[in-house]
Amino acid sequence: MRCVVYRGVGGREVVAVEQRPDPQPDRFEVVIAPPFAGINPADVLQREGKHPVPPGWPQDIPGLEVAGPVVAAGDAVTAFKVGDRAFGLVGGGGLATRVVANERELAPVPDELDAATAAAAPQSFLTAFDAIVMQAGLGAGDLLLVNGASGCVGTAAVQLAAALGARVVANVRTAELRPRVAAMGAEVLPADEAFARVRELGGADVILELVGAPHMADNMTALARRGRLMLVGAKPGDEAVVVLRDLMSARAQLIGSTLRTRPPEQKAALVQEFLRRVVPMLASGRAAAAVGEVFALDAAAEALDHVRTAGKFGKVLLEMPAA
């Protein structure tokens, strides 16, 4: 297989593309040959030594998700057979032409999804669904504020919320991207106007924070009574001041969340809910993963740098060569 490898810790100088032996599946695992691979901010943090890899996963091959046809299966696998298309989570090793995944952390790819759209979906929609629905309990009639709404998780959250019948205000810093996010079902504004609009509407029942510390003071003033602030994105070392009495007076909740470090049982349970409640939306077109820039595998270093670019849209993908 060909794969992205980190030769140490640092910047783009440690990124390489290497040829390695194809992985072999364990009893409950499959091997997938992804036509495209999704890149996430956590992959960049891993390169910098700021995002540890869970035990049992490749330590020097990044990648948190996979989508594509199954090319090999362990002898105890029952959910998939060779030739089936699957997508879902991995703890590492996703930026490769052959990726091992546990069958419990995968869902079947609907026939309606092409290869690129399927590759852009798992981490984005699982993160958004887990945060705003499973943890924050967003429902019909609620008001959701999404900070950083033009990225892959933000666009997924906007669409999920709209499909659930919630009202969405989206904070998008880049003017050129606002119409694209608005078309997904949100009222889209720059930061100051977004916070003012939410306060005018009586406060957000749920805030999805994908940027971090810069928004925390405004988030606290924009929460409705018993609102839930979901912190999903932040830079390493980010610090913010939260006035505890304000949090108490609003009877609000501040919830931090990640996916990668959860136990396999929790990931498996989340993927099953994703299969039941989100995959039908993707199949019907009620929601669609936003594909942003697509890079060749040999341009992996450039693609990883692009993930850090402000004002990007949707998911950054690597196009993987046939192996």
Word description of this protein:
It is a single chain. With 323 residues, the protein is an alpha/beta fold. It has two domains: 165 residues, Medium-chain alcohol dehydrogenases, catalytic domain (Quinone Oxidoreductase, Chain A, domain 1, Alpha-Beta Complex); 132 residues, Rossmann fold (3-Layer(aba) Sandwich), CATH 3.40.50. It is built from eleven helices and 16 strands. The strands form four sheets. The chain has a six-stranded parallel sheet with strand order 11-10-9-12-13-14, with helices on both faces. A five-stranded antiparallel sheet has the order 7-3-5-6-8. Strands 4-16-15 form a three-stranded mixed sheet. α4 links the parallel β9 and β10. The termini are close together. The mean pLDDT is 95.
Q: What brief labels describe this structure?
A:
single chain, 323 residues, alpha/beta, Quinone Oxidoreductase, Chain A, domain 1, Rossmann fold, six-stranded parallel β-sheet, five-stranded antiparallel β-sheet, 11 helices
